[in-house]
Design goal:
By secondary structure, this protein is α+β, with helices and mostly antiparallel strands. The protein has a single domain, classed as Gcn5-related N-acetyltransferase (GNAT) (Aminopeptidase, 3-Layer(aba) Sandwich), CATH 3.40.630.30. 26% of the residues lie in helices and 23% in strands. It has six helices and seven strands. Strands 1-2-3-4-5-7-6 form a seven-stranded mixed sheet, with helices on both faces. Strand 4, helix 4 and strand 5 (130-136) form a beta-alpha-beta unit. Helix 1 (14-24) packs across helix 2. The protein is globular.
C-alpha cells in the first residue's frame, strides 16, 4: 500500500490543490493557481500537502500573525488578506491556520491528523507560542431552525451533538475559545459561523527568538 507522505507544498501542486478544494467545498469559490503560488512566495514553510504517491489528497495552509493585533471577531478574508497571506508577519508568535481540507473519499485514513501534526511541527520548530484557527461548523445547518449557534456548540462540547470538524479539532488537543460570526459568510452549512480554537505549544521558549528561517522539508 502506498504510504501517506506529508511534505511542503510545491508550485507543481497548485492545480491539484485548486481542483481538490473545489470538490471539498463546492459551495465556496476555490482558490486560483495564482493564489496558491502567491501563498508559497509569502510563507513557503507554512504550506504543506498530504500525498499518496503522486496524488495530492489534502492541504494545510498557514501564516504567522501578531495575535494581539487582531480581534476575535475577525473574518477569514481580513486575517488572510483575502487568501493572499500578505498579512503574514515574520515577527509574530502565532501560527494562524488559514485552511485545511482533505479528499472526502479518504475520511478515516487519519490524513487530517497528519496535517494537524505537521502544523504542530512547524509551530514547535519555529518556536511559536501557539496555533490559532477558526473551524467550520458544518453540522449546524441541521439545527439552525431550533437553536442558536452558541447552544449548538455547547451541545457539541457536552457530547449531545456530533460536529465532524469541531469534534475532530477537540480530539487533536485544541481548546474551544468562542464563536466568530460572519467568518466565511458564504459557508451556508455553518451559517457563516466558525469556532475559534487554540493549541498552545508546550515547548515555547519566550527567551528564544522565533526561528523564521526554517526551511521546512518533509514534516
Amino acid at each position: 500500500m502506498t504510504r501517506l507522505v506529508i511534505r511542503n507544498t510545491q508550485a507543481r501542486d497548485a492545480r491539484a490543490l485548486v481542483e481538490l478544494q473545489a470538490r471539498v467545498y463546492p459551495q465556496i469559490d476555490p482558490w486560483t493557481e495564482a493564489r496558491v503560488l502567491h501563498q508559497l512566495g509569502v510563507f513557503p514553510q507554512g504550506q504543506v500537502v498530504a500525498c499518496f504517491g503522486d496524488r495530492v489528497v489534502g492541504c494545510a495552509s498557514s501564516l504567522i500573525v501578531r495575535w494581539d493585533e487582531w480581534d476575535s471577531r475577525h473574518s477569514w478574508g481580513e486575517i488572510t488578506a483575502n487568501g493572499s497571506f500578505d498579512n503574514h508577519d515574520p515577527e509574530g508568535r502565532t501560527l494562524y491556520g488559514a485552511e485545511v481540507f482533505v479528499d472526502p473519499r479518504l475520511r478515516g485514513r487519519r490524513v487530517g491528523h497528519q496535517l494537524y501534526e505537521a502544523r504542530r511541527t512547524i509551530c514547535r520548530r519555529m518556536n511559536l507560542r501557539r496555533i490559532i484557527a477558526c473551524g467550520r461548523l458544518p453540522g449546524y445547518h441541521r439545527y439552525a431552525d431550533r437553536m442558536t449557534i452558541d447552544t449548538y456548540v455547547k451541545k457539541v462540547l457536552w457530547g449531545d451533538i456530533s460536529d465532524p470538524v469541531l469534534g475532530f479539532q477537540l480530539k487533536e488537543g485544541f481548546r474551544y475559545c468562542g464563536i466568530v460570526e460572519n467568518y466565511i459568510p458564504q459557508d451556508i452549512e455553518s451559517g457563516g459561523n466558525a469556532s475559534l480554537i487554540v493549541w498552545l505549544n508546550p515547548h515555547y521558549d519566550p527567551n528564544r527568538p522565533t526561528t523564521n528561517t526554517d526551511q521546512g522539508g518533509n514534516q
